[in-house]
Amino acid sequence: MEMRRREFITLLGGVAVSGELPVRAQPRHIPRVGIVWIASQTVVGPFHDAFREGLRELGYVEGQTIFIEARFAQGKLELLPGIAEELVRAKVDVLVAPATAIVQSLKQVTTAIPIVMANVADPVGFGFVESLQHPGANITGFSNLMVEQVGKNIELFREALPDLSRLAVLVDPAAPDATLVLREARASARVLGFSLHPVEARQPEDFDSAVRQASDQNCDGLLVSTVEGLFFVNRARIIEAAAKHRMPAVFAAPPFGLAEAGALLSYGANTPDMLRRSARYVDRIIRGAKPAELPVQQPIKFELGVNLKTAKALGLTIPRRQLFTRSAHQGMADQICSR
């Protein structure tokens, strides 16, 4: 009887222990990606959708296999630091920065969370990476070559306006790349033999007076140095001011939303393509790659836009054959708008 009692106790003990052995499967970690935009969701919608499309092409399903934490600064650069801190506190797995000012804000609040630049000018010059081939820290991604394209924009402007002798450059002193753009523009002006005249706009109300200042200085044309932040959100107002003062304007940016709005010329890297490609780097980092080991990529698609209606209104004849033959040789996509 005593033996059976001991066997029974032992058996109960075995059941009790065996009941503790099974381990519940840990919930699968679903990666969270934070992405910050300077402009409103309405304005940057096509670019944001391009990034999401890039993730879908890689097999991700939003809300099931990946979460996207999107934040929009509504065109207010002063909101960026707070947004950056919020996403870092949220402990996202990867941060995506589609503008230079965004990278600066994120860089100030984290050295641990990987940051993928999606559309940034001169990442080496700004100190974001040690070199394009070897980024060296928690930041990598895609450079838009915007600063390098300034010279190309001026060359195209000169071809469209052979008599160009005085060029105004619209800059926002608060924009991170304003100094770099002016440096490149001055270098091109020296080579092509014309004078350069910076005009500043720090807020939307400054656009009309800046273009009027360029007109008063007898400038033949206006180069809009960047469409990041303030200029991107208010690009239609800049175009309206240029039309009001009969000032030919070229934008150092891809023609998306510019040619149709009335910009005479626009040239730059294909931004949606860079956003789609940045999704691949996000995927590689989620799978374990280190940003320091991923070289900074450059654009492979460029676009040139011309608005013929604007040219006609200004009394200009655009040498279409010359411009578009050149663009074909250089791998640009052409966009002609006659509306």
UniProtKB/TrEMBL annotation:
Q: Which domain of life is it from?
A: Bacteria
What Gene3D superfamilies does the database record attribute to this sequence?
Answer: 3.40.50.2300
**Name recorded for this polypeptide:** ABC transporter substrate-binding protein
User: Species name for this entry?
Assistant: Bradyrhizobium rifense
The opening ranks of the lineage are: Bacteria, Pseudomonadati, Pseudomonadota, Alphaproteobacteria, Hyphomicrobiales
